[in-house]
Automatic annotation (TrEMBL):
May be involved in transcriptional regulation. InterPro entries: Znf_C2H2_sf (IPR036236), Znf_C2H2_type (IPR013087). Pfam families: zf-C2H2 (PF00096), zf-C2H2_4 (PF13894). This is Gastrula zinc finger protein XlCGF57.1. The keyword Zinc-finger applies. The gene is LOC113046561. GO terms for cellular component: nucleus. Residues 19-46, 47-74, 75-102, 103-130, 131-158, 159-186, 187-214, 215-242, 243-270, 271-298, 299-326, 327-354, 355-382, 383-410, 411-438, 439-466, 467-494, 495-522, 523-545 form the C2H2-type domain. It is found in: Nucleus. GO terms for molecular function: DNA binding; DNA-binding transcription factor activity, RNA polymerase II-specific; identical protein binding; zinc ion binding. It comes from Carassius auratus (Goldfish). Keywords: DNA-binding, Metal-binding, Nucleus, Repeat, Transcription, Transcription regulation, Zinc, Zinc-finger. One of its GO terms (biological process) is negative regulation of transcription by RNA polymerase II. The keyword DNA damage does not apply. PANTHER family: ZINC FINGER PROTEIN, ZINC FINGER PROTEIN 771.
Length: 545
């Protein structure tokens, strides 16, 4: 094998030269190959392939090589009858049946069937990218990715569909594509009669009927129907994110997620509604949007008469009434009413924030959070109150505000008799009586009564300071602190002492000041009983003890 490699390298190195043998007139691409050929005339024992004229120093290597031309495959697998040219390839194949994975990564413990796969995997840990494009200098970790990239430069798509003109890199891809035009679905399920274009899809479908989930995670015991889903899941344990964006270097567990992410950079929104012209980045969101034009809300809730476009929307809604939380996180056991909420939650475990602000580069877990953030840059407040000149960024904020103008408060707390304009306000209030604190921070486990309080708290961990002063550029985590700061620039001091007329920016500062007049000292030292007007003075005093 080593001799073959050397000869191939020599032949490759001299492609630009043409040397002729003086003995027999044969031409060669380089001097070294000619010299090797000359040894045949000198009487040195060399072995030449009579099919392609390759030369070997060992007869055994020639014999192995000849199997390429004869298509001879003498080694047969006794499990599945697949045939191989040499025994080494058969031995590697047998590991599929035995389940043997003898090669283990000493960095993350992941196991592999073949040593070559382990070597390739190790590049994730070492950061090695050995395949470099000589056209643009781009580096790749995997040979397959490099080869695909090179076709971009060469424009090579040899296989063309004669129906629509679409071109493909491989003939196999063209053959599969042709079924789109012919409508051929040759693979039929004998359980339910469903037809499939591709055999792979048929095989995956059959697992639904058999209940088979052959891919089990040895870390947490979770089983999967599809190998791809198993592989994706395993990357949660290994932390492996092999798909990297070449624009911002963000990494993803799944290639599909990378493809979705790339549309952020390209601005591509390939799914356009022919009813209203609105464009969408994702097919799933586009399909849901189309329902608003094409269907009646035929699915009605028996509890509150609310109607929905789709049965799954109704199913999700019903959990509001039943309090059912069927979607459970496999990592922390937290449960959710909707699958979408679980998916968003899982991003917090993975750290994936795939929604990027084009203005400042800040990333978010959800598109909703991104849109809220973007209103800071645009200053846009399209939702206007019909009773006043006040405007709001989001319709839900307007809805809450408009209850101020409504005198009616139909929702009463049966514990204390307090009345509320909105049912949501009553629900939030009830947590005071029940002690419920359902919103938990997944960073420090601190619990909160209200979702808004959790969201505000999360800024401590993310470092987010969304409220920026346009006068001096200072940023604040909380809206209240921002408002107080703005009074410094405006000179506004709305809180006045009725004893001496002194004014203050903050109400809290006025309260502290009033103690001078009242003599109140609410902060008492537990050691000596001394009282203080301000907490910071008590803390300073405690250092004496």
């Amino acid at each position: 094998m080593e001799d073959t490699k050397v000869i191939e390298e020599l032949m490759e190195a001299g492609k630009k030269h043409h040397d002729t043998c003086p003995q027999c007139g044969k031409s060669f691409s380089c001097e070294q190959t000619l010299n090797l050929h000359m040894k045949l005339h000198s009487g040195m024992e060399l072995y030449e392939c009579d099919q392609c004229e390759k030369i070997f120093t060992l007869k055994g290597n020639l014999n192995k090589h000849m199997k390429i031309h004869t298509d001879e495959k003498p080694f047969t697998c006794d499990q599945c009858e697949k045939k191989f040219r040499n025994k080494a390839n058969l031995n590697e194949h047998m590991k599929i049946h035995t389940g043997e994975m003898p090669y283990s990564c000493d960095q993350c413990g992941k196991k592999f069937r073949h040593k070559g796969n382990l070597n390739t995997h190790l590049r994730i840990h070492t950061g090695k990218k050995p395949f470099t494009c000589d056209q643009c200098g781009k580096n790749y970790r995997y040979k397959g990715n490099y080869n695909d990239h090179m076709k971009i430069h060469s424009g090579e798509k040899l296989h063309r569909c004669d129906q629509c003109g679409k071109r493909f890199l491989q003939k196999e891809y063209l053959q599969k594509h042709m079924r789109v035009h012919t409508g051929e679905k040759p693979h039929t399920c004998d359980q339910c009669g469903k037809n499939f274009t591709h055999k792979g899809n048929y095989k995956e479908h059959m697992k639904i009927h058999s209940g088979e989930k052959p891919f089990a995670c040895d870390q947490c015991g979770k089983s999967f129907r599809h190998k791809a889903n198993y592989n994706d899941h395993m990357r949660i344990h290994t932390g492996e994110k092999q798909f990297t964006c070449d624009q911002c270097e963000k990494s993803f567990i799944q290639k599909g997620k990378l493809n979705e992410h790339m549309k952020i950079h390209t601005g591509e929104k390939p799914f356009t509604c022919d009813q209203c012209g609105k464009s969408f980045r994702k097919s799933s969101v586009f399909k849901v949007h189309q329902l608003t034009h094409s269907r009646d809300r035929i699915y009605k809730c028996d509890h509150c008469s609310k109607r929905f476009f789709r049965a799954d929307f109704l199913k999700d809604h019903l959990t509001v009434h039943t309090q059912e939380r069927p979607y459970v996180c496999s990592l922390c056991a937290k449960s959710f009413r909707q699958m979408g909420t679980l998916k968003t939650h899982l991003k917090r475990h993975s750290g994936v924030k795939d929604h990027i602000c084009s203005e400042c580069g800040k990333t978010f877990f959800t598109v909703h959070a991104l849109k809220k953030h973007q209103s800071i840059h645009t200053g846009e407040k399209p939702s206007q109150c019909s009773h006043s000149d006040k405007t709001f960024t989001w319709p839900e904020y307007l809805k809450i505000h408009e209850t101020v103008h409504a005198e009616e408060k139909p929702h009463t707390c049966f514990q204390c008799g307090k009345k509320f304009r909105l049912k949501g306000f009553l629900y939030e209030h009830m947590k005071i009586h029940t002690g419920a604190m359902p919103y938990s921070c997944d960073q420090c486990e601190r619990k909160f009564r209200h979702k808004g309080s959790l969201n505000t708290h999360m800024r401590i961990h993310t470092g987010e300071k969304p409220f920026t002063c346009d006068q001096c550029g200072k940023s604040f985590r909380h809206k209240g602190n921002y408002n107080d700061h703005m009074k410094i620039h405006s000179g506004e001091k709305p809180h006045s002492c009725d004893q001496c007329g002194r004014s203050f920016i903050q109400k809290e500062h006025l309260k502290n000041h009033i103690r001078i007049h009242t003599g109140e000292k609410p902060f008492t030292c537990g050691q000596c009983g001394k009282g203080f007007m301000k907490k910071e003075r008590l803390i300073k005093h405690m250092k004496i003890h």
